[in-house]
Amino acid sequence: MLAHSHKKFIAREAAKLREGNRVRQIPPVDHGAERYLLHAGRRLLNLASNNYLGLAGHPALRQGAIEAVERYGTSSGASRLVSGNFALLDELEREMSSFKGQEDALVVGSGFAANLMILSSLADRHTVVFSDRLNHASIVDGIRLSGAKHVRYRHNDTDHLAKLLEAHAGAPRKVLVTDTVFSMDGDIADLATLVDLCQRHGVLSVVDEAHAAGIFGNGRGLAAQLGLADRVDIHMGTFSKGFGSYGAYIAGKAEIIGYLRNTGRPFIFSTALPPAVVGASLAAVRLVREADTLGRRLLDMARDVREYLGSLGLDVGSSRTAIIPVMLGGNEAALAARDALVERGVLVGAIRPPTVPQNTARLRISLRADLTDADLTLFKTAVAQMTERV
């Protein structure tokens, strides 16, 4: 039976969520990664997923998953350090280290787990971690778990960061961690300046390429596109977005990856990814490596869509990627705009606090490389009609 104190606590907090239009529910969606999904039985154009290259249903990935299941079954059965390893995982890590141009790579269960293990392994109470204020929640939680001093700098404000680095010049160890593409704003980090600051101040650099992998740098990420891959200490990315599969990778110098294998609790104490996922991820990396124009097509499409939305008077912030926010401010406005698009056959996310700061609720449009001209026309027509109503 639920304790009376917790019953009162849950009721009070749930009431606050309702009053602020912040109640979340799992949407009635089927086929949620496909270009068209079913929403309460209705077919909608899917601009809400992170399947940026449209690879989640690609025949090569399906075949990779099927072959892995036929060879290895459905589960890894244990942590990789016990008996949960199989040759396909080793092959994926070799492929990723080669693809990223790094000495070694480690595959882990998710991007969230990867950030937790990087930060909890490489930072402690004697460490200062500098973090962009809009970094992903997994980075924030990783810093908390580490016990390090968490120093946030204003979003993409490298002058502010430089002052903070000077103020903490005497710290025994220092780490800087940043998203390269920010998942709710679609803008990108000033990576060149960040890397320069890290090297000037003796700071370990960690980049989260979750929303850049597969898209920028011929699929290798933003650091690769900017020619900075060799100057970044740790590269993290996911297979669950541009690569259309699941899981994450950490790549870098062999000594760093080896240390993480031995200290990363989310890796050590988790059952390894199942064979089907690994087979699909390996197929995806090889596909992106060969068809490296997919990301460029997506970025060109995004530029056209941003210009169109701007012509309607909509605020798309500083987006430079396939993630395009439409800034609306209030929670009610964001929900009403989302519902208006659903009525016109398009699904996008309505993002509200605490995922984004107060009074910055927005639509989050997530474009994908497999959209057709007809899909884009449907979307543009729907948005134009939405602006007349909302």
UniProtKB/TrEMBL annotation:
Keyword Transferase belongs to the record: yes
Documented EC number(s): 2.3.1.47
Signal peptide residues on this chain, from the entry's feature table: none
Domain Aminotransferase class I/classII large: 44-377
Protein name: 8-amino-7-ketopelargonate synthase
Single biological process term from Gene Ontology: biotin biosynthetic process
Subunit structure: Homodimer.
Organism expressing this protein natively: Pseudodesulfovibrio alkaliphilus
Coiled-coil portions: none
Major enzyme class: transferase
